[in-house]
Specification:
Helix content is 39%, strand content 17%. The chain is an alpha/beta fold. It folds into three domains: 5-57, 3-methyladenine DNA Glycosylase II, Chain A, domain 3, CATH 1.10.15.40; 63-313, TIM Barrel (Alpha-Beta Barrel), CATH 3.20.20; 326-449, Rossmann fold, CATH 3.40.50. The chain starts with a helix and ends with a helix.
Length: 451
């Protein structure tokens, strides 16, 4: 049974030093009990208390890291079933599947194409995360050869997929230092794969024909010293995989069943031959608890909507998506181009910036930090106000980029124009359109008047 905050508090040093980032030991204990803190944050906790509290303070779902350095992917360590309860933390990793029955040149080209499958949205990079290399041929040397080629072509972490310990050992001789995910331990090879995982300090996927068998395998591997596990429920239909993912998450978070307290791996590439259905399966697993998602195709038209869905699901619902404050050049503006301002709510920014870009007119678009609120909401909350806008304009450096002194504000806050002119001093304030759809017409007429 999980310990309460008071149970944990009794084991803490009670110094109230605040070095853990929380003002008091009692507050830290409550946060620890809720899964919102790590015991390691307390510098004064005794070893005896650590031993007593380690199991209680561990998250119900273990976090597992695949790969090393900047490209490492962490999955798991989730605390809730639904994002509105708190938030989801570690977004699923998308992996591209190649196998050793493919032509090596084709496989490497497929991997290298992932470099172009990358976008930036709301200041975040949308991209694939891993490459899965499968030993379809059964030839250990051929498998290791493809792993070598793939590793040379990408910095992404690898998922090594093989049934035999011999093939996996050959591949790990090449890629073991990069901490790949070993896929997968089964009832038949669990002992051999566990030894490989321990030898290379690599995470290990576990696959079984039923959830009961899966729990028995994870218990056995945990007892053998393999802690970083990823669960494959073994099903290969959308309905069954979906049901199992939900069961595993509920078992881990609600029932605190440790054998199921690990992230999951799903393989839409093995569930359907239809490209569209593969994307649909992947979308379901993004929304419902897939930790890793292996696909045979991550071409841009499939990848972009999936990556955007992942981004939307794995953002904090209590904190609006925001764009970094600053001036953004659109359509290569110069010293004569108009200066516009809006708020840093991501939807506002993307609507306004797309309309400016579509107008083909160069402009400087200023984004004011109003904690991610839309124009009217920020104005009503006292955040998109003359004092803040003027301070932003003066400190942004835009005065060094343009020779005029005129700023365009959204039409919905026209009432700010007079006071904003007073705050800015030598700047003229022009009221722009109320609706974003009118920006193109406004900019074209602006350019004509100011030509």
């Amino acid at each position: 049974m999980a310990l309460t905050g008071l149970d944990i508090y009794k084991q803490l040093p009670k110094t109230n030093c605040g070095e853990c980032g929380v003002p008091t030991c009692l507050a830290f204990a409550m946060k620890l009990a809720a899964g919102g803190a790590s015991l390691d944050a307390c510098p004064h906790v005794t070893e005896e208390a650590k031993n007593a509290l380690s199991a209680a303070s561990a998250p119900p779902m273990r976090g597992v890291t695949i790969g090393t350095g900047d490209f490492a992917v962490k999955v798991g360590e989730e605390l809730v079933l639904f994002r509105h309860e708190k938030t989801f933390f570690n977004a699923p990793g998308f992996a591209l599947l190649v196998d050793d029955m493919m032509d090596e040149g084709e496989a490497v080209a497929k991997v290298e194409a992932l470099k172009a499958t990358k976008w930036e949205r709301v200041g975040q990079a949308l991209k694939a995360n891993l490459v899965a290399v499968k030993n379809t041929s059964g030839d250990a040397a051929k498998f290791a050869g493809l792993v070598t080629k793939v590793q040379a072509a990408t910095d992404m972490p690898l998922i090594l997929m093989a049934d035999s310990a011999e093939s996996m050992e050959k591949a790990l001789e090449v890629a073991g230092a990069s901490k790949p995910l070993i896929y997968a331990a089964t009832e038949g090879n669990a002992d051999a794969f566990a030894e490989l995982a321990k030898k290379h300090s690599a995470p290990l996927a576990v696959k079984a024909g039923s959830l009961d068998a899966l729990g028995e395998l994870t218990t056995k591997l945990d007892a053998a010293g393999v802690k970083d596990l990823v669960l494959d429920p073994g099903t290969r239909t959308l309905k069954e995989t979906f049901e199992n993912l939900v069961y595993l998450r509920r078992a881990a978070l609600k029932k605190k069943l440790r054998p199921y307290g690990y992230p999951t791996i799903t393989i839409p590439a093995e569930e359907t031959d239809d490209d569209m259905m593969e994307a649909i399966h992947a979308a379901v697993y993004v929304m419902k608890y897939g930790g890793l998602i292996i696909m045979r195709d991550l071409s841009p038209e499939k990848a972009y909507p999936l990556f955007v869905l992942r981004q939307n699901i794995y953002t904090d619902p209590q904190r609006p998506m925001q764009v970094e404050q600053g001036f953004y050049p659109i359509n290569s503006p110069d010293e004569n181009s108009p200066v516009m301002v809006t708020t840093n709510f991501s939807l506002t920014y993307f609507i306004v910036s797309s309309e400016v870009e579509g107008s083909k007119q160069p402009a400087w678009l200023g984004v004011v930090d109003v904690e991610g609120l839309s124009v009217l909401t920020a104005w009503a909350a006292g955040k998109f106000v003359p004092e803040r806008i003027a301070a932003f304009v003066k400190k942004s450096g835009i005065e060094e980029k343009v020779k005029h002194r005129e700023v365009v504000i959204p039409g919905y806050v026209a009432q700010l124009s007079g006071e904003l002119e007073d705050e800015l001093g030598d700047w003229k304030v022009t009221v722009g359109p109320r609706e974003a759809s009118d920006i193109s017409t406004f900019l074209k007429s602006y350019q004509t008047v100011n030509a």
